[in-house]
Amino acid sequence: MTMAIKGFPKGTDIRTHRFLAYNLDQVNSFLPRIYFESNGLHQYNREKILKGLLLYLAKAETIDIWNFIEIDTKKLSQEFIGVDVSNLHRNLEEPYQKKEIRLRLEESGLKGAKLEQELEARIRELKESKTEYYFESVLEDILYRMQSVPLKLKMKSVDANSTTYDTENNLLIKNIRVSVDNSRKGKIRYFIRPTNFYFDSLNRSWVFQNSESARKLLKKNKNDTRLYDLYTFIVSLKEDCRKKNLACQPANFDFLCNIASVTEYKAEKRKKNKLIEMLKVIVETSEHLDDMIVNWDYKSEESNYRYQPIFYFDARKHQGNYVEQKEWFLEKTYTTFLFYLFEDHYPDVLTLESRRQGFQQWLSDTRTDLPHKCEVAKKAVKCVYDLDLEATDPAIVSYVETGNPYKLNVKAGYHKMVS
Fold first, then answer.
1. What is the pTM of this model?
2. Cα separation, 249 vs 309, whole angstroms
3. Which end of the chain is more exposed for a tag (fewer CB within 10 A), N or C?
4. Is residue 103 domain-resident?
5. Other CB atoms closer than 10 Å to residue 261's CB: what's the count?
6. Where does residue 370 rank: exposed (0-12), middle (13-18), buried (19+ CB within 10 A)?
């Protein structure tokens, strides 16, 4: 069980970058996949090492005054990735540093055999150099890429007059320090200094995770990271709910399928069933998500898909009997949908705190924007009760004005279940 940490939600002990949850496609394509066999038992890819490394950095216990973090390769491989440390030290035939040198030689006009001869000479010089280092192992190549190749991130910001979409290129590592111990059979120690972007973005926008759950999910499958990717996205949804004081969040079905890598299935029902299997594993592994329930009944009018799952958090505390749980689902779904309606109608309310205050006042005044609120209630009722009602239906209007779902329960037949 995770010890409570001041300022952290119950069951969590680390902060990770929010951009990972919403830019998983960019993170996944950051490193070209290379599969190699380990003792003939399984295949492995560098994408998993990269995410294990980012998780390791989030959990790092010691950072010196220059912001350097030492990488314990044995701990990284065994505790965060689930492979033998020799996998990290295996040399690549074409590391990124070699590709950079090749590209520069091609730009200088060299071709064919002359290019290859000069390339091998440059590599030999690097290996023999007393001032430079050749990054050729699997781990070294990842570190070198993190220092050399910008990660392309998609950002969205909203102000009173517009919504802005930005694409930023950012490096994750500023310095790499390699220490070779000549007296201990060439033992190599790695120290990295993350960029200001790495620290600034972590302090500006983060999600809370449980490091033990995250590591278990990352190690769960030997050749992919989809359970961990899905977990990262879910905890970001929960963090959104926490910040906005909501209890549920809808998610895009197609986006979930991409994260979970179930796009190879053609039937949507097959995709849904696979997602349910994966979500079950995540909940069983993550104590701080055992309050999560997913409703698959809702079909958004704007969606091309049969399903649009809605994630409810803190739900198991409100199970009660069937009718009571349905009423709780309806209340939280309606409130969440109303929050998004409020943000659309009143974009000039900028800060999170002022949005909360304004939203509560607007929510309490049931007559303001009544037709719009009834449209939202109609969607929520369809989602939770699977009733197709008009927004002007007396049961809908009554619920918006009083918050009492009795008339809706009557229409759904639930009143007969209450003694």
1. 0.76
2. 9
3. C
4. yes
5. 16
6. middle
